[in-house]
């Protein structure tokens, strides 16, 4: 089950479509859907989590806590809407595309993909693009 929670005034306009797409992303990786919660917040909220739980004193767009057991993926994915908006401008993409990228990014972490080294990061970007393309197929 995919849940959306809001700690800011942002609200996804198409929760049902997004949830269906994320379910398809999970299935495309041959994983089972467990309990996945997305929490949309602002920079300040996510910065506190980054410092408290990861000991990183930086701003970030997404932090995912992975509770996956075996083939059933579960987790909490915190997304800073402010960072996503800024990144969309920096990467010259729409906000909608960038929000899909971070939504998929969390799922991909739960599926075992990492993004620490150059090779891992390149594979993560490739997978994100592949999963964003699924959204257009699902509609």
From TrEMBL:
Major site of localization recorded for this protein: cytoplasm
Q: Does the keyword Transport apply?
A: no
Question: Could you state one GO cellular component term attached to this entry?
Answer: cytoplasm
For the ligand (Zn(2+)), the binding residues are 105, 109, 115
Q: Name one GO molecular function term.
A: zinc ion binding
Protein name per Swiss-Prot or TrEMBL: Endoribonuclease YbeY
The family database entries (Pfam families) matched by this protein are listed as: YbeY
- Return the cofactor note field: Binds 1 zinc ion.
InterPro entries reported for this sequence? MetalPrtase_cat_dom_sf_prd, YbeY
> One biological-process term from Gene Ontology?
rRNA processing
What are the alphabetically sorted keywords of the record? Answer: Cytoplasm, Endonuclease, Hydrolase, Metal-binding, Nuclease, Ribosome biogenesis, rRNA processing, Zinc
The highest taxon in the source lineage is Bacteria
What's the Enzyme Commission number for this chain?
3.1.-.-
Job of this protein: Single strand-specific metallo-endoribonuclease involved in late-stage 70S ribosome quality control and in maturation of the 3' terminus of the 16S rRNA.
Localized where?
A: Cytoplasm
């Amino acid at each position: 089950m995919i849940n959306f929670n809001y700690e800011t005034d942002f609200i996804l306009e198409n929760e049902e479509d997004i949830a269906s797409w994320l379910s398809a992303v999970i299935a495309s990786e041959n994983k089972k859907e467990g309990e996945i919660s997305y929490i949309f917040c602002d920079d300040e909220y996510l910065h506190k989590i980054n410092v408290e739980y990861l000991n990183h004193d930086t701003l970030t767009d997404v932090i995912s806590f992975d509770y996956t057991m075996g083939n059933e993926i579960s987790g909490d994915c915190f997304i800073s809407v402010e960072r996503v908006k800024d990144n969309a401008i920096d990467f010259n993409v729409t906000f909608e595309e960038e929000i899909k990228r971070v939504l998929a990014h969390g799922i991909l972490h739960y599926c075992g993909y990492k993004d620490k080294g150059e090779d891992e990061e390149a594979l993560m970007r490739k997978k994100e693009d592949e999963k964003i393309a699924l959204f257009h197929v699902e509609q």
